[in-house]
Predict the 3D structure of the following.
Amino acid sequence: MSAKIIYERFLWFHNQVKQGQFPNASALAVHFEVAAKTAQRDIAFMRDRLHAPLEYVPTRRGYRYENDSYELPGLWLKENEVMSLLVSARLASTVPDSALTIRYYSPHNDEATTRDILPLHLLHYMGTWHLIAHCALKNGLRDFVLSRIRDIDPSTFTIACVPTASVKDYIRKNFGIMTGTGTFEVCLKFSPAVSPWLAEQVWHPAQQMYWENDKTLRLTFPVADFREVKREILRYGAHVEVVSPKALREEVKREIKKMKYIYR
């Protein structure tokens, strides 16, 4: 999808807020005929990346600006961002039938490698875009974080098409918090300050939400592993409490203790 179309959604939502219309994710989804999750991500992007001072007003079931002087920044794209958008558009509009040569940077070993890949699926996962592709170098499916792709060109390498079922199995196996069957049920309690934001998010298809009398929100969902959900919990700082399971609560406490020594 082009950056221009995405920016149009931001601009419409911004203008609705400016006009005192108290727009929400449902209104955005209906106006542009997009999925509710897409609308939720748009609002989150405005708040987190465009620094829009959005505040949810429960009585109006929509958003307003805490600071009415805020203006939406212009649409300026860097070269790598344009390349990412081109890859996104290609994946969104066609079934990939040719390979690409990319130079991919890995922060884990601080190295960049050149690979021939066949793009198969674009996935937005916990705020990050991932490209699922068959990698000729590793001779199998691999996950590439879109922002880490430094260069991209057409490839002369031939890669056989990979069955769709294989891609689905790979995602289920490697992206557990959102799509895994899970063996632990996590219960989180969010403060009134962030609860309206959380009420519009989908962490897992099987999640359940409960509003408490003190306007806090309880969110429960299954996970297969604590690592990813722990990162999300720490992201909300003092605005979230792990209610259960006890093992996850203890892991978060240990992490907070480590942080204490860093900032002492």
Summary: The chain has three domains: 3-65, 79-173, 179-262. The radius of gyration is 21 Å.
